[in-house]
Amino acid sequence: MRVAFLSLLTIIAAQNTTQVDFCTASGQALMDGTQNRGGSCSNTIQGNTTQVDFCAASGQVLMDGTQNRGGSCSNTIQGSLPDITKMVSTIILSPSNGDRIEEGTPFVISVKTVNLQLGFFDNPQTEYYLSPQTLNSNGIIEGHQHVVVQALTDGTVPPSAQDFKFFKGLNGESADGVLSVNVTEGIAGVGSHRICTITGSRGHQPVLMPVAQRGSQDDCIRIEIVKKKNGKGGKGFNNVAEDVTEGELERVRHGRRREGRRRFRDRRHRD
């Protein structure tokens, strides 16, 4: 996890160097309001207003590296954007979409991200949103991943962003782009849930892409949390999930009885 070593560009920005100096040091073309498919550097806050003037006019407190729950104004420039061949994309490898997982049962969330050099993670308590987006020497965004699990009360109602069952920053390095986390306590409460990724730059802001029309840099899946197996039932039916109806069980029992009678007839004919 590259927390201790900020890139030269980030150090320049952190020392209150002007926006133009950061972009000059990046070696990229200066963003001019067009969607540059070859990548560019954004030093724009709003028009030609300086960073400090913009935040002063906003009436909000200036962001100081802490996570201000009441809101704040960030004067950190957006930073360097990759070219279109190096845009970030993510897929959730496990669980699979539609999986049914018993409540309170541990499971693993694995994700794979391309075009993101993982392991760049500023201290979220003191450096939140203070670093602009940076690229490595190959033009790949430097950043990290997150996963979050939320309950869905209705398929048409967006869940509150303040409510989640599980959240984890995936801050480690990975040569193949795959990172995993063990949800050791499982998820409490039955029902539909979604698992999503949140791809971030080193300073925790969402990754910035060079064009508007593109695929998503994040992924989401739906899973169903079901009641734990109750250990009840006759032979062969121990550990049946409680959400299986009695009618479904009876159909299985009937099928097994028919199979037993068929096998008995087969043995009798052979004898």
What does the secondary structure layout of this molecule look like, with pairings?
Layout: H1 8-14, H2 19-26, E1 40-42, H3 51-58, E2 79-81, E3 89-94, E4 100-102, E5 107-114, E6 116-118, E7 141-151, E8 166-170, E9 178-183, E10 191-197, E11 200-201, E12 220-226, H4 246-270
Parallel strand pairs: 4-12, 6-7
Antiparallel strand pairs: 1-2, 3-5, 5-9, 7-8, 7-10, 7-11, 10-12
- Count of alpha and pi helical runs: 4
CATH class designation of the largest domain: Mainly Beta
* SSE topology string: HHEHEEEEEEEEEEEH
**CATH topology category name of the largest domain:** Immunoglobulin-like
- Rg, please? 26 Å
Number of extended strands: 12
Uncertain regions: pLDDT < 50 for 5+ in a row?
3-18, 231-245
Largest sheet: 7 strands, mixed
Distance between the ends: 71 Å
Beta-strand percentage range: 15-25%
| Shape category | globular
By CATH's scheme, which homologous superfamily of the largest domain applies? Immunoglobulins
Q: How many domains make up the 3D coordinates?
A: 2
Which CATH-level-2 architecture of the largest domain?
Answer: Sandwich
- Overall mean pLDDT: 81
- Helices and strands: which structural class? alpha+beta
Helix content, binned percent: 10-25%
Signal peptide: 1-19
Biased composition (Basic residues): 253-271
Keywords: Signal
InterPro entries: Appressorial_penetr-assoc
